[in-house]
Amino acid sequence: MADCPVDFLSPDVRWSSDRLPRRTVLAGTVAAAALATVGAPVAAAVPMSGDSDEDLLLRIAGAIAVMPVPFPGFDERGPAIERATRNRLRLVLARMNHADRGTLFDGLDRVRRVMSVRDDDEMVVRALGRAATGADSIAAITIVVSTGIATISSRFEPGQRPAAELWLDYARRFAALPSAVKESGLR
Question: Which of 37, 68, 121, 167 would you label with 4, given CA atoms 20 to 30 Å apart?
Answer without folding.
Answer: 37
